[in-house]
Design a protein that fits this description.
The chain is an alpha+beta fold and about 325 residues long. The protein folds into 2 domains: about 10-140, Beta-Lactamase (2-Layer Sandwich); about 155-310, Alpha-Beta Plaits (2-Layer Sandwich). Helices cover about 45% and strands about 25% of the residues. It has a 5-stranded antiparallel β-sheet. A 5-stranded mixed β-sheet has the order 7-8-6-11-12, sandwiched between helices. Helix 11 links the parallel strand 11 (about 275-280) and strand 12. The longest helix has 22 residues, at about 130-155.
């Protein structure tokens, strides 16, 4: 094989592989720049060869990159930079601009030493791997996991926490309260005569009433409050840093806005009221369910005494 044949073969190989190849010397002057790099950068090899890499790629953090390459030159050891650490070294557009959800290419970078005849490293080879598909695939999986996590926590009808997750949070707050001794109250709410709504107007009307109460609860509480649909037409609200007196104000607020609210359903105007039971944490509540049962008993008394009332539990 002649020297010319060998050179042509090498150029053909460098141009055909789907990996960026850049060779620079110790002054970071470019000595090799393959077809992949030309295609994605818009820079032609004949223009960049012999010139500084940093003059053509301003996006490269020069001090960081020189520091990254230092062990390659001094210790004859390769260095790797993955896209999770730094999205890219060269700011290229994505190879699939129409179908990709990323504007820029994600890259893995390998920096390899190239030795001279005496064994000293006088050049380095920068390999650029397009990792955009893998990065986007990981992002989709993470987003799906986040969505599944939300679904597992949220009640589909109301958008409040479901019973399982609300109880998890309730038990966690119970343990914290034992340690920090801060006031905290729990409310149990129930829609009065809800069965009659379902029997008279149908389950869709009942769902509309439940959704309406959930919306009113959201408006009447703080972001730090923990609101959940406990089951059917029953709701539970945990109010951190809240005494009995303040919790009573919140309960009355929800009761009053519920009493005034009109649910529109298929040309009908539906009215509803709620009963509320409240229990502030007390050291006599030795278990979470004992505390919750106190609020539930107060709710039962509100129902028993005529409904549309707020009753406080007595420890």
């Amino acid at each position: 094989m002649t020297a010319m044949d060998k050179g042509q073969w090498q150029q053909a190989l460098l141009g055909s592989i789907e990996v960026g190849i850049v060779v620079v010397n110790k002054d970071f002057q470019v000595e090799e720049f393959n077809q992949f790099m030309e295609n994605h950068s818009g820079v032609v090899a004949k223009d960049i060869l012999g010139n500084s890499l940093f003059d053509f790629f301003k996006e490269i953090d020069q001090p960081w990159f020189e520091n990254k390459c230092q062990p390659v030159f001094s210790m004859n050891t390769p260095v790797f930079v993955i896209w999770e650490q730094r999205q890219y070294l060269f700011k290229f557009g994505t190879s699939r601009p129409i179908t990709s959800s990323s504007d820029n290419m994600y890259q893995n970078i390998t920096i390899l030493p190239i030795t001279d005849d005496s064994g000293d490293v006088d050049k380095i080879c920068i390999l650029v791997y397009d990792m955009t598909d893998q990065a986007m695939s990981k992002a989709r999986v993470e987003k799906l996991n986040e969505q599944l996590q939300v679904i597992s926590r949220v009640d589909g009808l109301t958008g409040l926490y479901n019973r399982r997750y609300w109880q998890e949070r309730f038990e966690r707050e119970f343990k914290l309260t034992i340690r920090n001794k801060k006031p905290i109250s729990v409310l149990m709410l129930d829609i009065d005569h809800f069965k009659a709504v379902n029997d008279t107007y149908g389950h869709q009307a009942g769902d509309k009433v439940i959704q309406s109460l959930a919306m009113l609860i959201k408006k009447a509480t703080r972001e730090t409050d923990i609101c959940g649909r406990y089951g059917g037409e029953e709701f539970a609200i945990l109010l951190p840093d809240t005494t009995t007196e303040t919790a009573h104000i919140v309960g009355e607020r929800i009761r009053k806005v519920s009493e005034r609210y009109v649910v529109q359903h298929e040309g009908l105007e539906l009215k509803f009221t709620v009963s509320v039971g409240i229990a502030e944490f007390n050291s006599k509540y030795t278990r979470p369910l004992v505390w919750l049962e106190a609020a539930d008993q107060a709710l039962y008394k509100a129902k028993e005494s005529g409904r549309n009332k707020v009753i406080m539990a007595k420890p």
